[in-house]
Amino acid sequence: NAGVMQNPRHLVRRRGQEARLRCSPMKGHSHVYWYRQLPEEGLKFMVYLQKENIIDESGMPKERFSAEFPKEGPSILRIQQVVRGDSAAYFCASSPAAGWVSTYEQYFGPGTRLTVT
Amino acid sequence: KNEVEQSPQNLTAQEGEFITINCSYSVGISALHWLQQHPGGGIVSLFMLSSGKKKHGRLIATINIQEKHSSLHITASHPRDSAVYICAVPQGGSEKLVFGKGTKLTVNP
Questions:
Q1: Closest to B48 (Cβ–Cβ): which among A33, A44, A105?
Q2: pLDDT for A11-22, tens place per residue?
Q3: How far apart are CA B2 and CA B14, in angstroms?
Q4: Is the pLDDT of residue A26 over 60?
């Protein structure tokens, strides 16, 4: 059973370009979470999705960021018109059901390191 | 809003020493998580606990719900334990996690 997959592992974009980060959850997991880790800072929640639904996006910046988790295929975190401040490690995690309040643990992917030049 | 404080921020130990990392939070929770982030950046979930104590190999996690405090212990520490250890708790009954800033552990041979 493969773990959580993220790609690409490293992504370099110039200011103004778009970044697309992909996350394939573990088999059988229907819940996906995205987190951002800025340099020298802790992890911060961004968004929580179930298949075809955004459950909680309270941690997403109001502009340029969007996320989806379609019925088929990976979850996508999209950043439009990237700026240098978007440079960070982006992690996704998955769980078979609601992960934090209930008894299910979350399993993390290896992360995508985004560098904006 | 739940605030999470970890201590110490940095910890250096000699191989074989017993390690304790502490985590305090401000609002009552249903479960607390301990994560390990390797030097390469990958994150592993170590424990999720809501009461008492859990043990995996040389790692032990305890939680005191009344005191809003948890500890992570490593017995017979080894250089491969060198990593950042992060504590996380739910934010106000939601699915959103709030993370501590992490404790950077270095175990020297």
A1: A105
A2: 999 999 999 999
A3: 34
A4: yes
